[in-house]
Amino acid sequence: MNKAVGNAVLRNRVQRRLRAVMAARLTDLPAGSLTVVRALPATATSSYDELVADVDGALQRVLGAR
């Protein structure tokens, strides 16, 4: 997590939210796949629902391209 996201409290909050979003979607990923989620500075002000929509959109693009 880059310090550009915010102070330690914000970075940890973003990290927990992204971890929760991805944990709910692990079953959608192919077995053995590796996933990297990069948090940009705007992520610090995003709501949980916005993070869900962004992650779902990204996964849909990646998994739809297979």
Quick structural summary:
The chain is an all-alpha fold.
Q: What is the radius of gyration computed over CA atoms, rounded to a whole number of angstroms?
A: 12 Å
Strand content: under 5%
How much helix is in the residues? 40-55%
State the total count of DSSP E strands: 0
Low-confidence stretches: none
Order of helices and strands: HH
Termini gap: 28 Å
Anisotropy-based shape? elongated
State the helix count. 2
The biggest sheet, with number of strands, parallel, antiparallel or mixed sense and barrel status, is: none
Mean pLDDT comes to 90
Describe this structure in words.
It is a single chain. The chain has 66 residues and is mainly α. It has one domain (3-64). It is built from two helices and no strands. The model has no long low-confidence stretch (mean pLDDT 90).
Task: Summarize the topology.
Elements: H1 8-23, H2 48-64
Task: Throw out a few tags for this protein.
elongated; 66 residues; mainly alpha; single chain
